[in-house]
Model the fold of this input.
Amino acid sequence: MKTIVVCSGGLDSVTLAHRIAATQTLMGLLSFDYGQRHKKELDFAARAAARLGVPHDVIDLSPVGRQLTGSALTDDVDVPDGHYAEETMKATVVPNRNAIMLAVAFGLAAARGAEAVAAAVHGGDHFIYPDCRPAFIDAFQAMQDAALDGYASIQLVTPYVRLSKADIVSDGARYQVPFAETWSCYKGDLRHCGRCGTCVERREAFHLAGIADPTDYADPDFWQAAIKGFRAEEV
Done:
């Protein structure tokens, strides 16, 4: 299928881009500037597109992002430290983010004659983000089938929706993804902080996958305490 990949520049979406490039016809990468504090991730998406030899488009949604207040990603709210599934991680929810981005992506795909839009939503996100759950994916596909009825038929490809972050790391190794050329940290500093939910999840995923993590973390050991604390809370 001729596929457009929604790519933030993070580990998940860059891995997905490499997977699609190896298994389908990758038409290009599509990124969004929604005013996120970790906007530097877009540079890593651009690098992925250049590496894969495909176009890279960045859609400016920053005026929309400014209206989606209350999130640590788009507002003057501190990014919390700790395990990704903790209650505090709800501070990183940007309401309707995936629905907004995917609606734009489907419109662009229809205009360009693509057959699919691929997104790297995954099972580990289900705790926090409602628009990363299988029910959302199914509902969005049904909505787009109706929205584009008689004009285009586009499939939403989400191979990781029922998989874990560790599974994605394993998949990335299979497709020789240069993991150091991906950005996860929500704080957007010079180095991955090692303390926010995405950093903790990233470090744990490499550990569970049994694959060396090339990421440069400011606090490389915090993840272990965060994981222990989370497991204790579960009990």
In short: Residues 2-234 form a domain with the Rossmann fold fold (CATH 3.40.50.620). The chain is about 40% helix and 10% strand.
